[in-house]
Design a protein that fits this description.
The chain is mainly alpha-helical. It is 66% helix and 0% strand. Among the domains are: 2-57, no CATH class; 81-208, no CATH class. It has helices at residues 2-26, 37-44, 71-76, 79-101, 103-119, 126-150, 160-178, 191-208, 223-231, 233-252, 258-263, 265-268, 272-289, 291-296. The longest helix has 25 residues, at 2-26. The two termini are 28 Å apart.
Length: 309
């Protein structure tokens, strides 16, 4: 199972890295970027096996009119999830063994770790700290999914989950308010609040989730787009940030058209056209790079796998 998960995850990442690292090298990034050439070469291996965050260029020219100078950051930024997912997969056999022997301590262990990280009871390196923080923040949901599959949650009386899930989610919101919500209402900067809120919501959704042998009639219209997104989930995730940046950069060029900037400035300030352009670019990425997911899954490569024969 672990080998199959890694095989499906890593080839799309390698394709992204081959294109992204080549582009950064072409724009002047190199071994002296971090001040320690040996470290640079070592860290470059994280593009092959992302046990930690892959490195990227901080100061490049970008592509005028198409990609802003922050494109390497947008390219590498989402890879924290790939790193966290990889660790979840590697630890899954140990987690599964713990669930079968000590289900409730195993289920609550990531939340306890989130509390420990918030109290700052020990210090680590920056790379290790980010890995532990992500594991403690989202690990409870990963373990919760495994507990659901193992039937652990079914052993609870029917009233327990609807009773405690809102309390856990509410505790997350309370802690976020205690922290002043920091950056707006983004819980990413408040790991403990995110852990509690996510655990409570996922717990409730797993309790309420229906089991369908086929799509209900009123939802059948969503079958093809959902099938496509499921088949290209890794591609969409890996490339979406760059597509958003490219869409914003391209749309900003329209400010140089006097007829538009003078007559419809409200349209140029709207986020809706940028969203539509971003989705169009994501569709192009699905066509251009999505085949890597088929190769990784040992399927015949397809351009647009939405379930149609």
């Amino acid at each position: 199972v672990i080998r199959g998960r890694l095989r499906r995850l890593l080839p799309p990442l390698w394709l992204l890295g081959a294109i992204g690292v080549t582009g950064m090298l072409a724009q002047g990034w190199g071994p002296d970027a971090e001040g320690h050439p040996g470290w640079w070469w070592q860290h470059l291996l994280y593009w092959v096996l992302p046990l930690s965050d892959p490195p990227y260029a901080y100061d490049v020219a970008g592509i005028d009119g198409f990609l802003g100078a922050s494109w390497p950051e947008e390219l590498a930024g989402p890879l924290w999830y790939i790193r966290a997912y990889l660790w979840f997969v590697l630890f899954s056999p140990l987690i599964l063994r713990g669930l079968r022997r000590l289900p409730w301590p195993t289920l609550l262990a990531p939340l306890a770790l989130a509390v420990v990280m918030r109290l700052e009871l020990f210090s680590t390196t920056e790379r290790l700290d980010s890995a532990i923080t992500d594991f403690s923040t989202f690990g409870a949901c990963w373990v919760l999914g495994m507990a659901h599959q193992e039937g652990v949650l079914k052993r609870l009386p029917a009233y327990v989950v609807p009773s405690i899930a809102p309390l856990l989610a509410g505790a997350g919101l309370w802690w976020a308010s205690h922290e002043g919500f920091r950056n707006g209402f983004d819980l990413d900067s408040i790991p403990l609040a995110q852990a509690l809120w996510s655990f409570g919501c996922v717990l409730l959704l797993l309790h309420l989730s229906p089991t369908w042998t086929e799509w209900p009639k009123r939802l059948r219209a969503f079958d093809r787009p959902i099938t496509l997104l499921n088949s290209r989930a890794v591609t969409v995730y890996l490339w979406h940030n760059v597509c958003i940046l490219a869409a914003a950069t391209l749309y900003d060029r329209l400010w140089s058209v006097d007829a538009l900037s003078e007559n419809v400035p409200w349209l140029l300030e709207s986020w809706v056209p940028v969203l539509l352009i971003a989705w169009a670019l994501i569709a192009l990425c699905v066509l251009a790079f999505g085949w890597a997911e088929d190769v990784a899954a040992k399927r015949r490569p397809r351009l647009w796998p939405d379930g149609r024969r």
